Amino acid sequence: MKKKIKSAVISIVVIAVLLLAILIGVKNGTLDKLTKEMPTLATKQEETEKSTENVKNDSTESKPYQGIEVAGYGEEFEIRREISVDRKYNENDRTTYNVYHVRVKDCRISRQCDFDIKRIDYGLANKKDSMDDNNNFISDYFYAAIELELTKDINDNDVDDYYNVFQTSWFIESLNDDGTFEPIKNAGTVGSDAEANKIGKTNFSFEKGETKNLILYCIFTDEEVENDIIALNFHLRNSPFIGPLAIIHEPETN
Question: How far apart are CA 194 and CA 182, in angstroms?
Answer without folding.
Answer: 27
